[in-house]
Amino acid sequence: MSNRKAFTLLEVLISIALMGIVIVALFSSVDMMQDSNQQLAQYLEKSKKTTNATKVLYLDMIDSDGNITITKDEFSRVCIEETRNSLYALPSAKVCWIVLKKENTLARIEGNAYHLPLRSEERVEIDPVMTGIELFDVYHEKDKILVLIQQQGQEPISFMLQGITKPVKKKEPADKNATTTP
């Protein structure tokens, strides 16, 4: 018995049983990792969309002429009369950011010299940006703009822009023929 060169049948059966237990544990952990990766990918995709949305809003405001109108209802409505940040290759565009009642969707409306509510002859592009908006508020004072956005169940997003001033109305040139009295 001292020159043992083979496994017994019992040793082979025990090793197969142990390998089966280890394989089941490995497969369940691989399955859990795949689920975790899918959830992470979904979170990253949602985060990427949110980042892109705030980036577009930021660029709309920073590239504006400063003529920004804020209307407050249940949510704020922000209209930028002229911005160079066009998603549709317009030289300058009017852009409004509003929260639609359907699913509280934050939407970006881009076009040329339109009015809200839209008339049938006006052509615009409407891009839904985020759904489930609980808070969309914008504050503009002097040269500062503060933007607050919060989606349902998400952390609030806020950012501030500085140096956005309303355009100064140009004075009409004095009539050359008019005489001035000292």
Compute the separation of the termini in Å: 130 Å
> Segments where pLDDT lies below 50 for 5+ residues?
none
Strand order of the largest sheet: 1-2-3-4-5
Average pLDDT value?
86
Task: Summarize the amount of helix as a percent range.
Answer: 25-40%
Give structural notes.
This protein has 182 residues and is an alpha+beta fold. It contains one helix and eight strands; from the N terminus they run αββββββββ. The strands form two sheets. It has a five-stranded antiparallel β-sheet with strand order 1-2-3-4-5, with helices on one face. It has a three-stranded antiparallel β-sheet with strand order 6-7-8, with helices on one face. The longest helix is centred in the N-terminal third of the chain and has 54 residues. The termini are far apart.
Features:
alpha+beta; 1 helix; 5-stranded antiparallel beta sheet
Briefly summarize what is shown.
The chain is an alpha+beta fold.
Topology:
Elements lengths: L8 H54 L5 E5 L3 E8 L9 E8 L4 E7 L12 E7 L2 E9 L2 E8 L5 E6 L20
Antiparallel strand pairs: 1-2, 2-3, 3-4, 4-5, 6-7, 7-8
